[in-house]
Structures are given as structure tokens and as C-alpha cells.
Amino acid sequence: MENPKIIQGGMGIAVSSWSLARAVSLCGQLGVISGTALDVVFCRRLQLGDPGGQMRLAVDHFPMPEMAERVWNRYFVDGGKQDDQPFKSKPNFSNKDIQALLELTILANFCEVFLAKLGHAGQVGINLLEKIQLPTVPSLFGAMLAGVDYVLMGAGIPRNIPGYLDKLAELEQVELKFDVHGALAGEENRVKFAPKKFTAEGVTSLKRPKFLAIVSSSTLALSLSKKSSGKVDGFIVEGKTAGGHNAPPRGGLRIDERGEPIYGPRDEADLSEFRAIGLPFWLAGSYADPCKLEEAIAEGAEGIQVGTAFAFCEESGMDAQYKHQIIEKCLGDDVSVFTDALASPTGFPFKVVLLEDSLSAAAVYEERERICDLGYLRQAYREEDGKVGFRCPAEPVEDYLRKGGALEDTVGRKCVCNGLMATIGLGQIRKDGTTEAPIITAGDDVRNIAKFVPPGKNSYHAADVIHYLLRAAPVHAGVTG
Q: How many whole angstroms separate alpha carbon 113 and alpha carbon 19?
């Protein structure tokens, strides 16, 4: 199949849900699911009783039924848990091999891709963050079991991912090397994954998906094209106005009077250098406009990646109340995005929509008791005895300091994991009865989503975005799952 003109961004935790990816793919473009934290998303959907029955449908197609039933029986609550009951927890990823967690992660990623691909021949991708390393290989494997077509990865230097895809496609053991702060010279830390343990009898290979690296500079793109462990099939060139995590400014972090990072000419991608690399590339960051699409193609790009415009459409996984709140703000020209240099425990700038009753509000942030119980953005560190420990700048300060962390690293850090779960309506209920507050990310062009809303309405569909970008007359508005 020819390369898509439009790639839908892989946003947040399950904002880029299977239903959104499917809607985009049905329109002939590349729908992308977010693979981040799908294990916890899946088990919480089951604890809500699997409303709609989509998870059961996907589970019934998993090629290893006994494994699927183990996971199902561990988390499914018939009729759903009580509204005031907390979600049952699951193990966190570490350097220990936990069979039940691997099974959950593989099944969750399989189901999300399976549903996104259901009933059509379009292409579907999965987006993962390089910074979240330990779940990567089982997540990729689960997606590949469902026939995922593309893997997109940024927020780091994903040099090893192409080689992992090669090995997983041939069902060969993968050794994932993960970063450990304070590791001694020559000290390497790895976890092993044996795909044949999770493969049905008679299967000898899987389709190897294409790999697109998300980058902000041609220097990184050139390095990846030459030094990656396997084939890089293209790049998404993401600018500073894109939502989610942004690349830090080159030359060191400087802050303006509003408290946002200052970017300069060095942070602008040199497209002539991307053309010289000779691999397909797409442009991202405030490109949700037909003129921008035409400009991108004129610059030699295959097309564009669009995230924010899809994040607030009916098919996205964002909770409806937040979608409609922000759309109303956009219609009233009253929406604002802040590039928060401190919010994310990764240390990367993170774009946040300013919204009452969310973690963007100082009072909400200050009232929240610090807790790190999901742990996707934890940093591995070397303990004095050589063992690997895990810490997060957003966890309780005394815990972080006890683990050797620096006090200044905790200032302003927000629990992005729990906040993003709340954004999709799966926020944890705490002992005092409160529910985790959301943190909503979007690109700078969120204020422009009003143009997708039909007159007299307060919502729109993924198909509306695509038809607008392609300057096509809508056949119908509302491709749903």
C-alpha cells in the first residue's frame, strides 16, 4: 500500500484508542493507537464489566485461548465494579520477569490493534515512548500478533527498536537493554523476552511492521538511519507546537516570562537534510490545515501527522466531559495551552491544556497526595549494592530523597500516569473517596478545532477532520466502532 498522507497521532494513554484508529483507517489514512499503559487500561476496562463487549470480542480471537482466559478471569468483574470501589491494582514493570504481567500486556496490545483493524483492510499503527522502556517488547509483540502495520516511537533515541522488530518477527529471543542511572562503566542491564513462550503452536513467524522514528532534528534522523539495529522506514518530524512531550530546546533550557521553554532557530528542522537522507518523512506540529498539508508535500514530505484535531473528536478515548468542555472553550475563543517544563517526570517539556479541576490548576495539584502506583515514568537507578531500584520525581518527596534523588527534581512534577488515566475516565479512586484529577495534553493549535465543529453542534468526527484536510466533500460524518 502507498504511504498515507495523514498519520493520526498516538496521543496520551488511550486517547488514541482503537475506535479512533479504526475510524481514521476506514477513511484510508493511518490510524494509530497509543500503546502506553495499555495493560492498566485493559484491566480497568474489564473491571468496569467490559461495557459494549468489545474486549470480549477481541479476547475470543487471541491465538492462545488459555492465556487469554487467565488474564480475563483475573480482572473481569461481571456487571462492573461499584462506582465508589477502587480499581484492582496490577504489578508494575521492573527488571523482574513477572509472567502474569507479560501475559496481560501482550493481550492488551493485541486486543487494541485487533479492534482497530476489525472489518477493513486499512493500515493501523502503534505509538510507544522510548522513555518507557520495560513494557516495550511485550507491547510490540502483542501488537504484532494482531498484525500491526506500523510502529511509531519518539521521546528518546529508539535506536534498538528496529532490531527488536526483526527478532520478534522471527520469534527470536529479545534482550532489551534499559537505562539505569548511576550504572558503572561497562555495566549493562537487560531483560529477556522469549516470544515462543507466548505463541500458538505452528506459528513460525510474524509480519514485521514498518518503523517510523519521531524526531525533532535531522542530526538524530541521520544517526538513526545509519546506526539503528535494523531498518528505519521513515521519520515523523515533530515541531515544538505538537502536543504531549516535546523535545527540550537545543543548547540548554531557558524559560520565558510565562514559565515556558524558549526555543530558537536551532530547534527548527532543516528539511533539506531530511530530503537528503532519502527516507519518507511526515511533518507534525500544527499541521491540521489543507494548506499545511500541501506545503508539507511540496517540501518533499509524504504528508503530515495530526494529533490534537483528532484528540477531541467523538471517536477518541478522551472522556466526553473533557472533550465537550474544551470544545466549548474553543468555540468561545477561551482555551489556552501551557508548555510545562516541570510537569513530566521524564524531564521533557509537556504541553498541558489549562482547565479548571485538572492538574493544570495549582490548587488541584497542591491538594493531591503524592503517590506513584502506576510507575510508567519511573527511572531505574543503581543502588549501593548494585541492585536496580526505581524512583519517580512525582512520588512522595521523602521516598524520592531516600532513593538518592535530588530535591530540585521533585519541584512541580505531576503524576502524568494517573492524570492521563483520569483523562479517559479510568482515574483511580483513593481511600478518601476522591478520584484522580485529569491532565489533558494538546498541541498549540487546539484553539483551531472549532473549525471542525458543524454549525449548531458541539462535537465532530474523525472523518470531518480527514475530509477537511483533503479538501474533500464529506460522504458522511461519523465513522464509529
A: 10
DSSP string, 158-198: -TTHHHHHHHHHTT--EEEE---BTPPTT---EEEE-GGGG
The confidence score (pLDDT) of residue 145 equals 98
Of all helices (H) and strands (E), which one includes residue 234?
Answer: strand 234-238
* Domain spans of the chain, in order of start: 6-319+448-469
480 — pLDDT class (breaks 50, 70, 90): very low
pLDDT for position 476: 41
Distance (Å) of CA 113 to CA 33, 54, 103, 107: 7, 12, 16, 10
Q: What is the mean pLDDT of residues 377-395?
A: 94
Check: CATH 3.20.20 for 6-319+448-469?
Answer: yes
Average pLDDT, the chain: 93
> What is the Cα–Cα distance from 180 to 184, expressed in whole angstroms?
9
Report helix angle 136-145 to 99-117, nearest 10: 40
Listed as own residue / partner, the contacts of 203-208 with beta carbons closer than 8 Å and 24 or more positions apart are 203/63, 203/171, 204/171, 205/169, 205/170, 205/171, 206/144, 206/145, 206/168, 206/169, 206/171, 207/144, 207/147, 207/169, 208/144, 208/165, 208/166, 208/168, 208/169
Per-residue pLDDT tens digits for 186-202:
898 999 999 999 999 88
